[in-house]
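TL;DR need structure tokens for one chain.
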Amino acid sequence: MARKAGVMSFEPGSGAVTGSVATLEFEWVFRALWRRRLLAASIFGAVMLAAGLYTAFATPMYEATALLLVKLGREYVYQDDVGNAGSAVVPKTDESLINSEIQILRSAEVVKGVVEAIGVDTLYPSLAAAPPPGVPLESVAAARLLANLIVGTVKDADVIQVTLRTPDPQVTARAVNMLVDLFKEKHLEAFGEPQATAFLEAQSKEASDDLKAAETALVEFQAEHPQFSLEDRDAILLRERTELGTALMEVENEIVAARQRALTQSSTVVSNAQDQLLKLRLEERTLLNTHNEDSRQVENVRHEIALVEGFLKDQTTDSSGRNGQEISLLTARKQKIDERLAGVEDELKNLPELTQRYRELTRDAQTKEANYKRIADRFEKAQTSAEMDRQKIANISVIQPAYAPLVPASPQPMLNLAAAVIVGGGLAVGAALLTERLSQGA
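>> reply
TL;DR here they are.
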């Protein structure tokens, strides 16, 4: 196959020395670049000129960064308001928490809030000077801010990095800090439960009223049945019945003894007095046979007869009064014991039903108390959380606020120069070699 002079062939079997291939190829490249030096210089110069013009006339963009620490706080703990008060659910991974916070931070409401707070004319003066027709200016500014906003996470840390670029260094730092403040407010609003506080307050009052009603019903039942205010009510009633039965037997025995005592005392005294009275009457009759009725002996005997008769009368009256009073007291005591014993028997008869009612009232009071404690505890936590929201206390901590940068983040002259040299050199060499190869092939 024919070859042109000055062109090396690298086809297999061409007979070229293997060790000299690289040297010959380098010589060819060098000669090609030398012959196409004007083309290569033009391309390289054009790239360098473009990079220089961009660096010289591009609007400087200043970059400000803030760092936020995301902690596992009260906002991420879900409390069950209707089930077990002690149950709580937290997210499985920190990644889900941070991703949620990033979405809140990049939300349209937060970004638009920054634009409205700072103003489009301050944030983007050029945009305010030439607003696009037919489109809301704030929406365009918010879209531009969102495009220049970079939100990411720091590796192996629960830290969110917020970076923003704008033409003004002071405005950039102010916008980032404003964005963080609005983000914290939106975070509290998203995780807050303002309606839950009012709901739990109403539920707490209702539960308190129910508890008072249940306790009142239990107290009234215990007042009506005092034995249910003590433990072992059945044993107490059985013991009381036994004691009442013993007391009743003792009173009955005392009544019988009192009656017997009255009969015994009355029989002995009266019998002696009657014997004495009989003797006196016989003596009176004997004296009347021998004496006048107005004699002293007869008058003395009659006086003694009157005394004995008066004694018998007083003794009968006195004995019946004392014994009758004692028997009356014992009878009244026996009646009270009978009445209480009958009441105990009725309570023992109704004990199963009363016990069931007492257990129902006790269980209802205990249930209402547990329910009230659960709701009151949840209401107290909701009040504390609401107060923390009002004071803007969140689980988001600013570990580094944004500061006004001293130098622009872009353009970077040295970086642009290095990139222009690499890109321009590559394009110049490639264009020169391609042109040389195409010219030789023709």
